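Is adenosine-5'-triphosphate placement plausible here? Inputs below.
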Amino acid sequence: MDHRQTEPIVRIQDFRMDFGRTTVIHDLSFEIRAGETFGFLGSNGSGKTTTIRALLGIYEPTAGILHIDGRPFSPERGSRLGYLPEERGLYKKESVIDVMTYFGRLKGLGKQDARAWSLAYLERVSLAEKAAVRLDKLSGGQQQKVQLGVTIMNQPELLILDEPTKGFDPVNRRLLMDIIEEQKRAGATVLMVTHQMEEVERLCDRVILLKNGRSEAYGTIPEVQDQFGGTTIRLRYSGEVPDSPHYRVTTRERNYAELDVVEAVDEAVILRDLVESGVQVRGFETSKLSLDEIFLRVYGDENAAIEGEAA
Ligand SMILES: Nc1ncnc2c1ncn2[C@@H]1O[C@H](COP(=O)(O)OP(=O)(O)OP(=O)(O)O)[C@@H](O)[C@H]1O
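Reply from A.M.:
I modeled the complex. Tokens:
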């Protein structure tokens, strides 16, 4: 893969995917640039795995362009691609070190190099003493660590990770994030599906939020925050907070209110308007909506609909 080119590493344009008569992806477009870590976010069933499968040629897209390095993906060029699929699974009846060495050889490493790399990795993820154990004797989380090792062997230039930390305890989740961050620092481009906003905030340069196969927001985290009005004002006051086209009052208590800024307007203007309308302002703090809050806004109504159906 040649990172000097201007073409993005991943380009998805007007991608549509139908299963039978159901359209699950509607004209989706986004790109991933060389060296960035890109968060692919969305509620369950929003189409993340389908998009990855179409990108890797596992599914035939109904319409659109899905390119890696300027061309549709083909496995022959795949040696520098690391893919951790949503469905996990390796050959379970072999020992951990044999399985890892085997995959290393498939990725073009010599046997000794593959073995040495694998032993160092197992040490890193506290599995050194399991090297000779059959894979199916490991816990689910331990097996996942082995699978991540297999995925990042041979330093792929593009890493596609479908929920890499799913099912991990907090300590191991942090360890996995450290490992992903190292890959990023070594220059890898990373496409990562995750439901953990903490991971997004720590690792991702840009994100896309998918809902029912459509993009709801796309950009850097500050850009996404801006796309959602972005700012909340916490106001301590006395008097009466007037209605305004600039904000929506989301909390109104005696002497305390929260206002969501709905228009691109300077907060100083809102403060001035409040004072001019006779509000005595005792405290005025602004903060950006967190990704968690944005997520709840985008997907909250889905759960309401599900609850409604259940009722
Ligand atoms: N092979 C298939 N045939 C029919 N429908 C499918 C197929 N694969 C996925 N779907 C449907 O496409 C939609 C998107 O599924 P997908 O697995 O891409 O979601 P996801 O965003 O990865 O979800 P999750 O977070 O739960 O993994 C779902 O409604 C799913 O039922």
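Short version: The domain at 229-288 is CATH 3.30.70 (Alpha-Beta Plaits).
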